[in-house]
Design brief:
Blueprint: H1 3-20, H2 24-56, H3 62-81, H4 90-93, H5 101-111, H6 114-118, H7 120-132, H8 137-167, H9 172-180, H10 191-206, H11 211-238, H12 259-274, H13 276-298, H14 305-324, H15 335-338, H16 344-358, H17 361-373, H18 378-397, H19 399-402, H20 422-445, H21 448-464, H22 466-479, H23 481-490
Length: 493
């Protein structure tokens, strides 16, 4: 069996694994929503491609100068929406083939993913407009190919950094610095002229003959690097390499006063501190909350009132949305133990609600000094904190009824497919965009003060009624108990 045949066989196995997943039938709705979202994204890309093409004025290399903006956006989109790189290579490692062959096939599949080719929706309209503007056909074709190859190269860069970030969150710093390199001229004496020279150099490179082979060589080099690291990480997981033992155990005895809820609060705290996946997610979420809160509160980046309110809302909601979007996923590793005593689950849900509500103090305290400078009002911060703690948490906690995929507590390179059903997607969209539909019209129609008062009342209403709607979530979970248990069991690593 040659490598092409093996590649086709592995692709077939991946498709079969999707179809055999218990969530396959429900996942059809999620796929439909993904296609709709992809279609909307393609429309935006077509528009931007045509706009950049008109700005090029017949110079095909202009697109290459725009890649310093497109590639960081592409990386960010992958980081937000693309799941952790996972390769189902464990069954193939023991086969009588080269030890790197299976990994190479999975790396190649990242090059031919549909998302990579979706960017052609920008590059092709740009090429057509550039041709109409007088650019040469060979230079346009060269830039079109190079632009698509740069997206494929970016997929390898993402895989490289994401794999390292999964092992240590500190690798996010080199990733940020890497994409910031083209903007270094902005730090020098005449930033405008220096940055313009950088753009001119990139534009000239786009019209050069050597750019295409240089990009191909970069893809080949990074492919070999990723192949080495992926095999190393996969081998560590398969060989069950022993991890270092805990040096210190925290008891969190101050939570004893809260009884059983306090015990589950300890579980939540220890899970976020000890388990690699949850610890990294917590660190990244807190860093993003602090960064965005500081940007909104202490810079003029979002001085527009609507944008200030929009980002202020998501500064409060960010940690809960990113952490609770897979609620009950980590508990899927030991869900059978939680089911041994009646109402363990509802106590766990109450503890989670208390924990993530208390976490709202972080953005509140970060943005509090802006109240004294006059940029924010105390009513505004209280409104967003209460609205997030009540209304948004109410929406997100509904996912506990439908989530039934176990999340690994320790980050893995090998893995299984990640599925979501249509109801999960609908709840996630409601959590992301529902607040805007309430805050936006209210801000425009009745003004900020009445809108903030309404948000306070609505948020407090859901906070006070939390025992009742958490009980409703628990009751609905129990009606789906066996279906969810089957999903948790089948998706354990």
């Amino acid at each position: 069996m040659n490598r092409l045949q093996l590649f086709r066989l592995l692709r077939k196995h991946i498709q079969l694994s999707y179809k055999r997943n218990p969530a396959f039938e429900q996942n059809q709705w999620a796929k439909l929503l993904m296609y709709i979202g992809g279609g909307m994204f393609a429309i935006y890309l077509i528009i931007y491609g045509a706009v950049i093409g008109m700005a090029a004025k017949g110079d095909a290399g202009t697109m290459i100068s725009f890649m310093i903006l497109i590639l960081p956006i592409d990386f960010l989109l992958r980081f937000i929406f693309q799941t952790t790189p996972a390769m189902m290579v464990k069954p193939y490692i023991l086969l009588p083939v080269s030890r790197f062959t299976a990994i190479e096939c999975f790396l190649l599949s990242s090059h031919v993913s549909g998302y990579n080719f979706l960017w052609l929706a920008m590059f092709i309209p740009y090429s057509i407009v550039a041709l109409a503007g007088g650019a040469g056909i060979f230079s346009v074709l060269s830039v079109l190919i190079v632009s698509e190859l740069l997206i494929m190269l970016n997929s390898q860069i993402y895989l490289f950094f994401r794999s390292l970030i999964n092992r240590s969150v500190l690798w996010a710093v080199p990733a940020i610095l890497f994409y910031a390199i083209p903007y270094v001229p902005l730090l020098f004496g005449q930033p405008g002229k220096m940055f313009e020279k950088t753009l001119d150099a990139l534009q000239a490179a786009g019209n050069s003959w050597w750019l295409l082979p240089a990009v191909i060589l970069a893809i080949a080099a990074l492919f070999l690097i990723n192949r080495h690291f992926q095999f190393k990480y996969v081998y560590e997981e398969i060989s069950k390499k022993k991890e270092s033992e805990l040096k210190r155990v925290s008891s969190f005895s101050f939570l004893d006063r809260f009884g059983t809820v306090g015990e589950y609060l300890k579980l939540e705290l220890k899970s976020n501190l000890r388990n690699k996946v949850m610890r990294q997610r917590t660190i990244m979420s807190i860093v993003l909350v602090v960064v965005f809160s500081s940007l909104v509160a202490y810079t003029d980046v979002y001085d527009n009132p609507l944008m200030t309110n929009f980002w202020c809302l998501y500064c409060f909601a960010l940690y809960s949305v990113t952490s609770l979007i897979k609620i009950m996923g980590q508990e899927g590793n030991y869900i059978d133990l939680l089911m041994t005593h009646r109402e363990n689950i509802i106590t766990l849900l109450k503890a989670k609600f208390c924990f993530y509500s208390a976490a709202l103090v972080i953005p509140f305290m970060v943005m509090m000094p802006a109240v004294f400078t006059g940029k924010f009002t105390f009513l505004m911060l209280c409104a967003y904190m209460l609205f997030t703690g009540g209304f948004i948490h109410f929406i997100i906690f509904q996912l506990a009824v439908y989530n039934k995929q176990t999340l690994p507590l320790q980050q893995k390179v090998t893995g299984k497919g990640n599925f979501e059903n249509g109801m999960q997607i609908a709840i996630e969209m409601a959590a992301l965009f529902g607040p805007v539909l309430i805050v936006g019209p209210g801000y425009l129609l009745v003004g900020p003060t009445y809108t903030f008062l309404f948000m306070c009342v609505l948020g407090l209403g859901f906070i006070v009624s939390a025992p009742w709607w958490l009980r409703n979530v628990y009751t609905r979970m129990m009606t789906r108990k066996y279906d969810n248990l089957e999903g948790f069991h089948s998706t354990r690593e």
